[in-house]
Every structure is written in C-alpha cells, then in structure tokens.
Design goal:
It holds the Pfam family Voltage_CLC. The chain is mostly helical. It is built from 19 helices and no strands. The protein has helices at residues 3-26, 31-70, 76-98, 107-114, 122-138, 146-163, 169-188, 191-201, 210-231, 250-282, 286-306, 318-322, 328-347, 355-376, 384-400, 403-414, 420-436, 442-460, 463-466. It is globular and about 65 Å long. The chain starts with a helix and ends with a helix.
Length: 467
C-alpha cells in the first residue's frame, strides 16, 4: 500500500470522529439541561396521568357510595349532598390551610413564577393541588383538571432544579416552562398544544432560546409518551370525523368567531367579577370560606343526580353534543346554565381549572349555531358538528388569546385534521374582535388580580406583621 493510500485511509477513518466533534462544537446545549427536561417530562406525565385516574376513581366511588345509601335510611339527595360537600371540603381546606396559591387554575401562578414575581412552593403545591383537586373535581363541580396539571408540572420543574441544586437562572426558567408544557401535554394527550401553549400563551414570560425550546419539546414529548403508555393513544374526545366544509360555508365560521370574540371578553370579566364577589362573601375567613365551599360542593352533588349536564368539567359531555343528542334550544339553555355554574365553581377559589369548562361552552354554542345555520341554509350541506369543534377553539382563542394553541389543541383532542382551515378562520376572527374590544387574556387578568389583592392585604396588615 502506497503512502498516499495510507493517508487517505487515515483521513476516512477520522471523518466520523471529526464530524461528531464538529457537531458537538456547534451545539452548545448542555446535555444536563436536556436530561433534566426529560426527567421533568416523565415525572409531570406520570403525576398528570395519575391525577386523571385519581379523579375518575373518586367520581366512581362517589357513585358507589350513593348506591349504598339507597338501601340505607338516608335519602338519596341528602347522601349526594353530604358526600359531595365532604369532597369539596377537602379541597377548600387544603388550599386555605396549606397553599392559597393552589386555588383556582394555577396557571397564572406559573406565569408569575416565570416572571419572577411569584414563588413556587412545590412541596406544598404538589400535594395540595393533587388531593385538593381530587376532592373538588370528584364532588361534581364544574372544573377542569388541566389547570392543576399545568401547575403541578411547573412545580415539578422547580422541584427538579431544587433537588439537583441548579443555580443558573435561565436553566431554572427553562425547566419551569418545560414542566408547564408537560402538564398540558399530559392533561389532553396533546404534545403540540403543550409546546405551543408555553411558546404562545406564556410569550411575555417565556425566555426564547434554542436551549429553552429544546427543553420544552423534550419535556412535552416525554410526558405525552408516559400518558399514552398508561391510557392508550386514542384521542381524548371520541367524536365523528368530519370532511372539509364547502367554501361558501367559511363565512359562517368567521361569523361564529366574531360572536365568540365578543363573548370571550364578557366571559373574562365575569370570571374576575365572580371571584371578587366570593372574596366579599368570605373575606378570607377560613370558617366562612369552608362553609361556602362545602355548600357549593353539596349542591352540585344534588345537581349531579337530576341534571348532570350542568356539572363536571364537560369533556364527557362533548361527544353527546356532537352526536346530535340535543336540540338547538336546549343547547342554548345548557350553554347559559353552564356559564353560571362555571362562574360559581371557579370563582369560589376551588382547586380546579377553567380550561375544560370553556371547551364545553364552545362546543355547546358552536353546535347550536350549526343547527340554526343548517336550518336557514340547507343548500350548504352543513354538519353542525364542524361548528362545535370550531367553537371549542374559538372560545379558547378569545379568552386565553392564543389562537395557534387553540387550533392545535382541538385538532389533537378530536383528531379532526380536515377542519384546520375553518378552525383558523374561526379562531382568528375571535382573537381579532376580542382585541378590538380591549379584552385582556384570562390568565393575565387573574395574575394581575392576585398581585393587586396581595398588595391590598399587605396594606391592611398591622406594621408588626409586615416586619
């Protein structure tokens, strides 16, 4: 073998090593950050999936307890009241006694933590949100589990940074955001929506960098894999698969988006108003807070017996709506009834989210709109279910002010990829009109309200307690 051939062979042998070294030199991402984001995603996925199973278990056990009460001397309505009141009491007590920041959705708390203005007491938030959410959601109240799952995911992100003593502020911020994305991905089996929720909805707080984006993606994917390995790979909502609507019908989707844009602004203001009313009722007194919360939970236990459509998060109601189970008139009545029940439950400060109730409201009004449009314009061959799906995304976009997240979330939850064009039109119309009316994103409003009330309480404290 000649000297030139030996040199060529040595160069060829060195090429893979040089290519790897060159790749590593270009990619400045610390491997430790990626490994920690993977750990955050796995833990958040496991906790979020376990939380869902726990809520279902409590709901089923509540039904078993009611069946046992039929054969006893206690009337069924009284048993329903007492069981749901006890479950709600657990949620309200844990929140008020141990972690007030676990009240409500919890997403504003994560946004505040990403902004450096809210603490993350994960050792308190995780157990309180988990067991308190089990009680509140298990009682039949109109609350969702996605808000608690996002907050618990963020808390896990901060827990991991504390356990491994991560000092770098950007890394701590990235893992906090990764936990939030993982929480949403696990809550709805929607990894793309989980990623986009952090990137789009939390854009004022999220620190954009290649490292943070990688961490968020890895965490959301790993959380979703955990969810699917336990619950399966089916979409969260089982509903018909729709074909694209005719082009002339797209103007109706824009009209629906405009209507949701107006309603979204009104709904956001009603949410903060309901919270202010409940604060005036209990004035942060624990006994009054627990009494009001227990009564609300008990009343929803009774309502669950006789009118279950106005109770619960509403995700289970969506397939019934889209399968044509109700008339347009009943859907509108149910729509306004669930607005009232959502405001009561979420405004009371129970540890539960507003994500799922909003999706149910969007489905109710969207399907009713579709039924009316079909009756007025039979030549367009309209399927009302398409408007139900568009309504889910539109109300989310109008209230949360995150249209791309709303589009991806609905598509992933329902597996209706053919409706992406009407979804874009509806969500865009909703966001534009909500902005024109001057409305603020719901979670920004809630965070601002929390900070404002905390300052007011600090002013009311005596000087000794401030020291």
């Amino acid at each position: 073998m000649s000297k030139r051939e030996k040199i060529n062979l040595s160069l060829i042998a060195a090429m893979p090593k040089d290519a790897i070294n060159q790749f590593l030199s270009k990619d400045k991402t610390p491997v430790s950050v990626l490994l920690l984001s993977l750990a955050v995603g796995i833990l958040a996925g496991f906790v979020g999936t376990l939380f869902e199973l726990a809520v279902h278990f409590v709901s089923e056990r509540r039904t078993d307890w009611l069946k046992e009460a039929i054969a006893s001397a206690i009337p069924l309505w009284l048993a329903a009241f007492l069981i749901s009141a006890a479950l709600a009491f657990i949620g309200y007590f844990l929140v008020h006694r141990f972690a007030p920041e676990a009240a409500g959705s919890g997403i504003p708390e994560i946004e505040g933590a990403m902004d450096g203005i809210r603490p993350v007491r994960w050792w308190r938030v995780l157990p309180v949100k988990f067991f308190g959410g089990m009680g509140a959601l298990g009682s039949g109240m109109v609350l969702g589990r996605e808000g608690p799952t996002v907050q618990m995911g963020g808390a896990i992100g901060r827990m991991v940074t504390d356990i491994f003593r991560v000092k770098n502020d950007d890394t701590r911020h990235s893992l906090l955001a990764s936990g939030a994305a993982a929480g949403l991905a696990a809550a709805f089996n929607a990894p793309l929506a989980g990623i986009m929720f952090v990137v789009e909805e939390m854009r004022p707080q999220f620190r954009y960098s290649l490292i943070s984006i990688k961490a968020v993606i890895i965490s959301a994917i790993s959380a979703n894999i955990v969810f699917r390995s336990i619950n399966g790979q089916d979409a969260v909502i089982t509903m018909p698969q729709y074909q694209p609507p005719e082009l002339p019908a797209l103007s109706l989707f824009l009209l629906l988006g405009i209507m949701f844009g107006v309603f979204g602004v009104v709904f956001n203001r009603l949410v903060t108003l309901s919270q202010d009313i409940f604060v005036k009722l209990h004035n942060h007194d624990r006994k009054r807070y627990l009494l009001i919360g227990s009564i609300i939970g008990g009343c929803f236990g009774i309502t669950l017996l006789y009118l279950p459509e106005v109770t619960g998060g509403g995700i289970g109601l969506i397939p019934t709506i889209t399968n044509g189970g109700y008339s347009a008139g009943f859907l509108l009545i149910l729509f306004f009834a669930r607005i009232a029940t959502t405001l009561i439950c979420f405004g009371s400060g129970a540890p539960g989210g507003i994500f799922a109730p909003m999706l149910a409201l969007g489905t109710l009004f969207g399907y009713a709109f579709g039924l009316i449009a079909k009756g007025l314009l039979p030549e367009l061959m309209i399927d009302p279910g398409m408007f139900a799906i568009a309504g889910m995304g539109a109300l989310f976009a109008a209230t949360v002010r995150a249209p791309i997240t709303g589009i991806l979330l609905v598509i992933e939850m329902t597996n209706n990829y053919y409706l992406i064009l009407p979804l874009i039109i509806t969500c865009l119309g909703a966001v534009i009109f909500a902005q024109m009316l001057g409305g603020q994103p719901i979670y920004s409003q809630l965070l601002h309200r929390t900070l404002k009330n905390e300052k007011l309480r600090q002013k009311d404290l005596p000087d000794e307690s401030k020291c």
